[in-house]
Amino acid sequence: MTDPNQPPADGRDDVPPSQPAGSQPYGSQPYGAPAGQPAGAVPPQQPYAATPGAPLTAEQDKQWASFAHLGGILWFLPSLIIWLVFKDRGRLTDQEAKEALNWQITWIIAWVASQIIGVIIGSFTFGIGWLLFSLLIPWALYIVNLVFSILGFVRVNSGGTYRYPINFRFIK
User: Fold this and answer.
1) Whether this model's pTM surpasses 0.85
2) Who's near 154: CB < 8 A, 6+ residues apart?
3) Which of 42, 82, 142, 152 could cross-link with 69 by S-S, CB 3.0 to 4.6 Å?
């Protein structure tokens, strides 16, 4: 009887005595490693090369451009994501997503300004200014954003372009 804490007498530490010589136990080959490669070896990595996506067709370009405007209903994230993903794949999508994103940034600045003014005026007028600038004006701003976003969606989806009436061009 041999001691289980001692290595086998023949010097083969990695193969149990019940397996034939030259075979490896189940699980010793790393997943995805080429056959015959040692268990601890890392295969050589290919350098990552980013390839641009295929250009959008005219219909896809119009679709994503109009969705950039409609996404304004959910603040700036849909417009930002569409612009970042499709800006190099379609001219109309690049132009309209930038326009929609600039509008969303302008709208958020106006919304934050109304909140700040509401806090300042509310502290002097005992709540009337807060009610006006922190509740009513932000809702009015959201309705304006909703209307302009839908107008932009409809105009671009029908084949035109859309420029918001008040828009600071942060992204050129």
Assistant:
1) no
2) 66
3) 152
